[in-house]
Specification:
The structure is a single chain. The protein is an all-alpha fold and 245 residues long. Helices cover 70% and strands 0% of the residues. The chain is built from 8 helices and no strands. The longest helix has 30 residues.
Length: 245
């Protein structure tokens, strides 16, 4: 449940100041470059660039990698599983590197994004529905409370002598947490409607923010990394389209 707690980046970091939509666009570019190929060289080069970008997002590398550890383990497990079934070790390594690179691109981008700034950017530039975006933002802001409520429920069960086993306690605690989440969501929805969030009338943005040259430079850098990694793989003769046989 501690995985629900957001990381707090340093606002003075270079990538922490970039526009949230620019970070997501840059991550999507790298993900697409890794998705269309199944060679090991392209994801290796992209991974090197992503690891080099970790200090620029303002989140401690140890905290970021510890939070992403389950994703990396799953990616490596899928790579080993494919290597065993296909008998191709290089193919399994390539799949594992691709999955790690795709996951790390998303993690590096999302870890330094403020949810409020992302919601503002979605409404201002992508014209996302205001009611849905604000509701999703409120839900995301409440997610860290689940970790505290999980601990409170677990301590209450232990005080009452109900914590008999980890498996049974998990399902019981999850059910209690779900009921508490539904009650909290109902109260929040009523409070938001009471403040006029259900009104479909015209609204203004309290924090308008334009996409600057720095943001476009970040997207261009992602394109350059993807192009250089793919070009190096093509020059080495290892690039292979993922649908090719």
């Amino acid at each position: 449940m501690r995985l629900l707690e957001p990381l707090t980046p340093d606002p003075r970091a270079p990538l922490a100041r970039a526009h949230p939509l620019a970070k997501i666009a840059a991550a999507l570019v790298l993900m697409f470059a890794l998705f269309i190929t199944i060679d090991p060289l392209t994801p290796t080069l992209v991974l090197i660039a992503e690891i080099a970008a970790i200090p620029l997002i303002g989140v401690p590398a140890r905290a970021l990698l510890r939070r992403a550890f389950p994703v990396f383990v799953a990616a490596l497990g899928i790579g080993v599983f494919n290597a065993i079934l296909s008998g191709n070790i290089a193919g399994g390594v390539a799949i594992a590197l691709r999955l790690v690179g795709i996951a790390l691109a998303g993690i590096v981008a999302v870890a330094s994004i403020d949810p409020t700034e992302l919601a503002d950017g979605l409404v201002e530039h992508l014209h996302a529905p205001r009611r849905f975006t604000v509701g999703a933002l409120a839900a995301f802001r409440l997610m860290p409370l689940f970790a505290d409520e999980w601990q409170t429920i677990a301590l209450a069960r232990r005080a009452r002598g109900l914590d008999n086993g980890r498996v049974t306690a998990f399902f019981s605690t999850t059910r209690t947490l779900l009921v508490a989440a539904i009650r909290r969501a109902t109260r929040l929805a009523i409070a938001m409607d009471g403040r006029g969030f259900a009104d479909p009338g015209c609204r203004t943005l309290a924090r308008p923010r334009a996409i600057s040259r720095l943001d476009w430079s970040l997207v261009a850098a992602a394109f350059a990394i993807a192009a250089l990694a793919s070009a190096a793989s093509i020059a080495a003769g290892s690039w292979r389209f993922f649908l090719a046989r």
